[in-house]
Amino acid sequence: MPRARTRTAVLSAGLVMTATLGACTGAPQPHAAMPMARPDPRPVAEAMLADTINKINQHGTAHATMSGSLGVVGQLNADGAVRYRGPQADLALDGKTRNTRTEDLAVSIVDEVGYLNTPLARPDATKPWLKISQDGSDFGSKLLSPALDQLHESVDPRATFSGIEQATRIQDSAPDTVDGRPTTRYDLRVLTEEAARTATDEQQRERFQRAAENGERELGYQLWLDESGLPAKFAATTKVAQAGQVSLVSTYRDWGSPVDIHLPPAAEVGIFDDLPPMAQPPR
């Protein structure tokens, strides 16, 4: 900031001198200079996010609790584990959803393919697990993959911030606690136009581009870091196609501890090719 003020002062003095000389010589006056864009005073989050992402990769696993809204799926409360492998994050959750009624829910996401187990979306009596693929042409994938993608990203801050660290600003930070642990809470803002230019992931780039085109100049997130610099909590709200507004909070513990994440048995997995029949309440 001091350098910016110095440059502005020098430029202003130069313009005043030029105008004075022009008045004395009778030379035509130049057009008034356009005001300089004010620099963003908020700190860039690049160093903090790079360190956080590096520590997530180093530890590799964590236990997580998730709560919030999954849009059309309903309110979610679940507990599970995450395994970070390169750019991917495998996930296993068990919990409940509440929409018109409360139902059990289990989710596994392995190699970016999701598996959902809930009485409201069962392919048939012998196949309790519904397979959901990002590029699937079946009805279930088309309807639920956007919400499941957001669930996936909500447990992995890397999916939100990798590649756009320079386009993220720290709006505010303050000491806080998460489950009794001392943390620092960061209110972060992603500049959508800049993020759309710099993001290397195609889906990420398209998401920020849509937000910018819809007039959302910034998107807000909250990230709590513990004293070692690892995430203690992450909160994100996103409007998702076909799913409505997805708003989730992930709370982390036991970084680096062993986790059990596995695929459901193949014989118990099915898909919905077309619109499924209305789920019947359990008897």
Written description of the protein model:
With 283 residues, the protein is α+β, with helices and mostly antiparallel strands. The protein is 28% helix and 36% strand. The chain has a single domain (45-270), classed as outer membrane lipoprotein receptor (LolB), chain A. It contains 6 helices and 12 strands. Helix 5 (192-198) packs antiparallel against helix 6 (202-213). The chain is globular, with a radius of gyration of 25 Å. It starts with a helix and ends in a 13-residue tail after the last strand.
Chart the SSEs and their pairings.
Elements: H1 2-25, H2 46-59, E1 61-70, E2 75-85, E3 88-98, E4 102-110, E5 113-117, E6 129-132, H3 139-154, H4 157-161, E7 168-178, E8 181-191, H5 192-198, H6 202-213, E9 218-226, E10 231-240, E11 244-253, E12 269-270
Parallel strand pairs: 6-12
Antiparallel strand pairs: 1-2, 1-11, 2-3, 3-4, 4-5, 5-6, 7-8, 8-9, 9-10, 10-11
Signal peptide: 1-32
InterPro entries: LolA/LolB/LppX
Keywords: Signal
